[in-house]
Amino acid sequence: MKDEKRLAVREFTHWSKGYDRSILQWLLFSPSHQALIKRIREVAGDRPTRLLDVGCGTGVFAALVRSTLPNVQVWGIDLVGGMLEKGRARWQEHRGRVLPVQGDSENLPFETGVFDLVTCANSFHHYPRQDRAVQEMARVLRPGGRLLLIDGYRDNIWGWFIYDVCVSTVEQCVHHASAGRFRALFSDAGLGSVVQHVHHGPAPFILNEGIAPAGVPRPHFGGLRVATSRPSIDEVGRGD
Questions:
Q1: Strand ranges (DSSP E) for the chain?
Q2: CA-CA distance, 218 to 168, in Å (whole number)?
Q3: Domain, as residue range, for 37
Q4: For the domain that residue 158 is a member of, what is the CATH number?
Q5: What separation in angstroms does the CA of 145 have from each of 50, 181, 184, 229?
Q6: In a 3-state reduction of DSSP, which class is residue 218?
Q7: What is the pLDDT of residues 63-88, one digit of tens each?
Q8: Which secondary structure element, helix H or strand E, spans residue 213, and what is its range?
Q9: Helix (H, G, I), strand (E, B) or coil at 87
């Protein structure tokens, strides 16, 4: 697992130099980001919303959220410092409303139950312990909060060829989950009402949506905090 993470860090540190100019921005990232924006607008409306973007990269999606959904405050987290550094101009432009954090998706540095939405777009196939990552994303959601997770759709011949053959050959140590695997991961993490939308095209992708169940009240919008060893959401924000 550690070797896979080290490989991913090296790969993305190198990729960060041309990440914003990659053809994938047009082919896959932009369509998937637009799908997320559409869904966020549908479920959040104009309400003040706290959103965590896992695998935020250089902040392309975070900046898009801020420009189209002004009542959404974004926290972005990425394992690779080089990616966050390349997004410095975006973090500065949206300072105070977009807060970047370097950290691991398998051990998110946030208290339990502090986000209304968690998004993860096009990085999940790089996570060695995908079950742990989904559990962490579910943990930081408030009751009724939603996880919106997008990754390549590999359940037809074209998707299998792109992701399981081409991408796996080039990137190595990656795994694109099937639709059934996503449903199992969400269920095991306690997320309910799982809905999946497949977007077809040159680079097909699947949007998986799950809702955190109601349960013991958890902190929301600066309310009571759960006593954990993790820093509070405000403490993490002040550190950047």
A1: 49-54, 72-78, 98-102, 115-121, 141-152, 192-199, 205-211
A2: 40
A3: 2-238
A4: 3.40.50.150
A5: 10, 21, 19, 22
A6: coil
A7: 999 999 999 999 999 998 888 998 89
A8: none
A9: coil
**Rounded to the nearest 5 degrees, what angle is found at the Cα of 218, between the Cα atoms of 119 and 69?**
35
d(CA 59, CA 84): 7
b/e for 184-222, b at 16 or more Cβ within 10 A? Answer: ebbeebebeebebeebeeebbbbbbbbbbeeeeebbbee
Element (H, E) at 175: none
Per-residue pLDDT tens for 118-151?
A: 999 999 999 999 999 999 999 999 999 999 999 9
| Structure token digits, residue 15 | 């990729």
**DSSP for residue 202:** S
**In total, how many domains does the chain have?**
1
What is the distance, to the nearest Å, from the Cα of residue 181 to the centroid of all Cα atoms in its chain?
17
The tokens of 79 are what? 């394992």
Cite the DSSP H helix spans in 16-155.
23-24, 30-44, 60-68, 81-86, 88-93, 130-139
Q: How far apart are CA 34 and CA 179, in angstroms?
A: 21
**With DSSP H G I counted as helix, E B as strand and the rest as coil, what are the percentages for the chain, rounded to 5?**
45, 20, 35
* Measured CA angle at 39 (ends 26, 190), to 5 deg: 115
pTM over 0.85: no
